[in-house]
# Entry
Amino acid sequence: MPVLVMKFGGTSVADLARISNAAEKVRREVERGYDVIVVVSAMSGKTNELVGWVEQTSPLFDAREYDAVVSSGENVTAGLMALTLQEMGVPARSWQGWQVPLKTSSAHSAARIVDIPRANIDQKFGEGMRVAVVAGFQGISPEGRITTLGRGGSDTTAVAFAAAFGAERCDIYTDVDGVYTTDPRIEDKARKLDRIAFEEMLELASLGAKVLQTRSVELAMRYKVKLRVLSSFEDTDETSGTLVCDEEDIVEQNVVSGVAYSRDEAKVTLISVADRPGIAAAIFGPLAKAGVNVDMIVQNISEEGRTDMTFSCPVNQVPRAREAMEKAMEAGEVNFRQVVADTDVSKVSVVGIGMRSHAGVASTMFEALAAEGINIRVITTSEIKISVLIDRKYMELAVQALHDAFGLENAA
Ligand code: ADP
Ligand code: ASP
Ligand code: MG
# Structure
């Protein structure tokens, strides 16, 4: 029988009534003739609560125990979903990651999926089971420890199962009815897109649009998974939601397709760094080793052999960045006068594959921000995106101004 993957996010399984609603959607697909793999998240708010408990218990926690704790939310919803389906008369059972087994790397809290052997689940489908309910976000390391895939990781579980089982489609059910030109919670005029290209979705996700985890889009692109985002709160059919697809399958391409933001960024500046060959490696090597995800980088003009070096990273990594730089200074690897961190900045980005062939996107973006009196702190560009770092208090205003400036309320 053809296989369908259906993933339900936290708000879509927030309580027993929501689980029942989701199970009803699953039952309909079973009646249409699919064997279904359901991937569930923890009930909304649960993972945050679990993370909070870990941090309170042990600020410099053992990542293996962090994963043991935070993966547990998904176990509850997987079991409840299987029970709900059974009550509806649908043959279903739950699978925790290790039972599949969903094999991952050992990078706790940010593990990568390595393999999903099909044998166990296929055997049960062969015996008449119609729905395998899989706990999202979790797997097992080569050492036999529980791992998690990073926040939002159930999306990636879903796409990986769709690839492994050659699913006809991977439907991501969430609390919005598709991918929008920007976060509809920030901009009322945001428009739902019927289709979005993989590459654009990849950029939007990695620049902060949390509707899909970045890695899930990467996997869908690599394994040609038909990926769709749609609402669990509405009646849906084959045409609902947003299809993430190849660029060639989009008839009318917008120059800019979306605006993304990442609220909690920080700007760190090393003041008066001795400017010499190898200095960038001496700074960014230790930062990488300390696990700091450096994003934007600016090096100022050098004066009398000294320069300022600025980079951005997530706010919660600033203490680690400071520590790494101070150690590098003590070890004589770098020499600077001071580290200054501005922790009140956000990143706002515009994304569109049409930028490849259209000039003027950057100037439109900068003019729109200037018209609102928003100062740009750092700029980076790539072929299909432009990002700016701005003061956090202007983040929402910037998203709205850019949405207007690129006419996205008329996007389709
Ligand atoms: P789930 O719990 O179902 O995984 P998430 O909260 O992870 O859901 O992702 C859905 C949320 O993503 C939406 O509620 C919306 O606020 C946010 N979002 C951000 N950018 C976008 C966008 N461009 N289109 C749709 N939703 C977006
Ligand atoms: N429950 C996990 C999280 O909140 C995984 C997910 O929902 O995708 O990050
Ligand atoms: Mg999510």
Notes: The two ends are 35 Å apart (CA to CA). Residues 9, 152, 155, 210 surround magnesium ion (ligand 3) (CB under 6 Å). The first helix runs from residue 16 to 31. DSSP finds twelve helices and 18 strands in the chain.
